[in-house]
Amino acid sequence: MRKFLLALASLSFALLSSTASAQQAPTLYSQLGEKAGITKVVDTFVGNIAKDGRINGMFAATNIPRLKTLLVEQVCEASGGPCKYTGRDMKSSHAGMGVNRSHFNALVEDLQAAMSTEGVPFGVQNELLAVLAPMYRDIIAR
Ligand code: HEM
Question: How many structural domains comprise the chain?
């Protein structure tokens, strides 16, 4: 009986500590403030792009509400959230635009500034940028 109780106690401890460690590892999605936090960042980000003379001309013919919806879906899905991105792939949506490294850097600056404005911690900002960085080769014109 004593052995059984000991085994039961250590099993409960193992279960409890695995639950605790699962709670200690929040997803990037939750660190961004879930859908509501991501929506705020995207709104501010697109507002920054609109004011950015280095790149705003490229968005002159773009349906902005649609772009915002797609960016929220994309960031939500890429950060581990429960969304499904419904837009076009990065290669076809940027084809023929002539996006170069300077355009890309300008857009990343606008995103970083938006995350700072919305209070996203620096480390979390870098995590999102790392998730988006591999898209670079599909977006840049060659
Ligand atoms: C990691 C970087 C980027 C991400 C994640 C991204 C994401 C997206 C997404 C999700 C869309 C909507 C796709 C669709 O229409 O189905 C889009 C469209 C667009 N992107 Fe990007 N983009 C990035 C970089 C850039 C850069 C550097 C530029 C130029 C400065 C740019 C210019 C545009 C424009 C103008 C559109 C709208 C195209 C249209 O009106 O049909 N993007 N982007």
Answer: 1
